[in-house]
Structure formats: structure tokens, C-alpha cells
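Supplementary Data S3. Sequence and C-alpha cells for construct A.
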Amino acid sequence: MNDQMIMENILLTTKGACDLYMHGTIESATQNVQQAFDSALSDSLCMQGDIYQKMAQKGWYPAQQADQQQINQVKQKYSGQN
């Protein structure tokens, strides 16, 4: 297993944790529990962002820039305009 694969696995695991913390935040029955999940979610999102940045710097997670036509198509789709 090389470094790229390890980082991909860490990123996927962190994304999974974010998903669980988000659902915990939404479903919390008390304010204290909600705040605990929300804090863990915030920390995990920061960690996920850091991992993504490191991967992108190494070219392991290339991002594609959307052109204006693609952006306009998505805007139209979700604004209800056809």
C-alpha cells in the first residue's frame, strides 16, 4: 500500500466520520449531546479539508474547474427555470 492509497483511505474514513457526526447532530435529543456532535463535526470537517489540501498538493486529488456554461446549467436546474 503506497502513500496515496493510505491518504485516500484516511480521507474516506474522515468523510464517513463527518457523515456520522452530522447525523448525530441532527438527531440529538438534548442540547449537550447536539453540541458535542456539532463540535466533533466541525473538527472532522477541518481535518477532512486539511487531508484534501495535502492530497491536492501532491496531485492525488485533482479538482476540475467548472466552466460558466456548466454552472449556469446547474443554476437553472435548481432554480426551477427551464
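Construct B, processed identically:
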Amino acid sequence: MKKVLVVDDSKAIRQIERKYLEEMGFEVLEAQNGEEALKVVAENPDISLILLDWHMPVMNGYEFLVKLRANPEWKHIKVMMVTTENQQKSVIDAIMAGANEYLMKPFDKEMLETKIKYLLEEEL
């Protein structure tokens, strides 16, 4: 079973994403901010995908992404930003920092599932 890490400071968003992901057959891990997420990734190097919010306390999604991509052992992990951040510069910054995909909130299950299937296509 593939592991997915949901990183979002909103418990409600984490619960929605968890429900959708579990219905898709994934094992779901959670973190409330980038700092927590780094610890989860260190303990679970077999994570396949991270759904990452941008705006969080302690360490935001962009800062987390930069730190994640700085570690060569984690380069295989796909990252999808799932955020309300819609400024073109922010989208470009995230992709340049190593995000593989970008999903705007609010989203529905079908949109999430389509993007995940695209991202993990070669692995499913």
C-alpha cells in the first residue's frame, strides 16, 4: 500500500483529503506544518506522495519543499501543492522549488484523483 503524507494546518482539510485518499487505497499520514512533515518523512522514507498546503505556521509549504528537495534521499517523493495560493509567481516558485503538481482549493474528489493518477501513473 502506497503512503501519502497530507500536510495542512487545517484539521478539516486533512480529514477530507484522508477520506478521499483512503477510498483510493492509500495509507495516509498527516502533519500540521512543514516542520512536523520533515519528521514524518524522515521516519517514513517510503512515502510516495505529499499533498502540501502553502500557508502554515512554524514552517510553510514552500520552506518545507525547499528542505525536502535538498535531501537526495527524498527526490523520488512526488509533491502536489494543494492550496488557495493562486498567484502566478507562487505557482512558478513552487514548481521551480520542486513541486510536481499544483491543485487549487476548493477541489473535488475527481480532480484530486485525476491529478494523483497522473503523478503516480508510472508507479500504479
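The mean pLDDT is 92. Residues 3-118 form a domain with the Rossmann fold fold (CATH 3.40.50.2300).
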